[in-house]
Amino acid sequence: MKFFIDTAEIDEIRDLAATGLVDGVTTNPSLIAKSGRNFLDVVAEICDVVDGPVSAECVALDHETMLKEGRKLAEIADNIAVKVPLTPDGLKTCRVLAEGGTMVNVTLCFSAAQALLAAKAGATFISPFVGRLDDIGQDGLSLIAEICEIYANYDFPTEVLVASVRGPLHVAAAARMGAGVATLPPNVLRAMFKHPLTDKGLAAFLDDWAKTGQTIL
Ligand code: E4P
Q1: Which three-class secondary structure state does DSSP give residue 160?
Q2: Looking at residue 38, what DSSP letter applies?
Q3: Which of 7, 176, 204, 206 has a C-alpha 20 to 30 A away from that of 51?
Q4: Whose CA is closest to 123, among 150, 96, 162?
Q5: Full set of structural domains in the chain with CATH
C-alpha cells in the first residue's frame, strides 16, 4: 500500500518524507486555505520535495474552465495529479486530461457507482471519503471493499486512494481489502508507529542494557 500525506504544510511534508515512507501528497482547497500559502507556489514546493504524485484540485465547476485549470496545474511539474470532482463535468475533464497523459485524481466519491464512472473515465486515482461517510452514520470502509471488488472484476487500472482517513484502523482495514493507496493526515501516519507495548518493551530493554555497562559504539 502506498502512503500519501494529506496536507499542504510543507514542513510536515519534509519531516515525514524523511521517514522514507511517503509516496505522494494530496491537497484540497480547504488544506490550501489552512496553509495560508499561495496555491501554485505551495504545490510547486511540494512537488520539489516529493517524487510521487502530488494532487492539486481544480475549483471550476464547468468542463471548459476546469480543463484550463487542470492544464495549468499539470504544467507545474511532471508529478502533478490533477484533482477533479465526481460530477459530469469533472469526469469529462478527467477523460480529456487522462488521454493527454496527465494523472487525474477523482475526488469526493461516496458510492461504488460513482467509482465505477470514474474508472470508465480513465481516472488514475479514485478518492472515496471514508471518514465523512462514517461521520453521517454510514460505513466508509464497506465502500472501499465494494470499489476494490468492482475494480478487480474488470481489471480497471484506477487505483483506490482511501481518503478522509481518521486513524490507523482505517488504514489497516483498507490495506486488508487491497486498496492501493491511503492518504494520511500527518497525525495518522505518526499514530501508526505507536503501540504502548513498543514503548514499554523499549524502556525495559534499555533498563536491562544499562545494567550491563556495555556500549555498542
Ligand atoms: C484528500 O484527498 C481529501 O480531500 C481528504 O482526505 C479529505 O479529508 P477530510 O474529510 O478529513 O477533510
Answers
A1: strand
A2: -
A3: 176
A4: 96
A5: 2-192 (3.20.20.70)
**Global pTM value:** 0.96
Strands 125-128 and 181-184, how do they pair?
unpaired
Look-up of cell digits 471493499: 145
Q: For residue 186, give the C-alpha cell.
A: 500527518
83 is catalytic: yes
**Ligand 1 geometric centre to CA of 212 (Å):** 49
* pLDDT score at 98: 98
Angstrom distances, CA of residue 162 to CA of 32, 105, 129, 130, 173: 20, 11, 7, 7, 11
53 Cα distance to chain centroid: 9
Q: What is the pLDDT of residues 24-83, one digit of tens each?
A: 999 999 999 999 999 999 999 999 999 999 999 999 999 999 999 999 999 999 999 999
Beta strands in the chain (DSSP E): 2-6, 24-26, 54-57, 80-85, 103-109, 125-128, 159-162, 181-184
The catalytic position among 68, 83, 92, 194 is 83
CB contact burial 34-68 (16+ within 10 A = b; e otherwise): ebeeebeebbebbbeebebbbbbbbebeebeebbe
Check if the beta carbon of residue 90 is closer than 8 Å to that of residue 60: no
- The answer to whether the CB of 183 is under 6 A from ligand 1 is yes
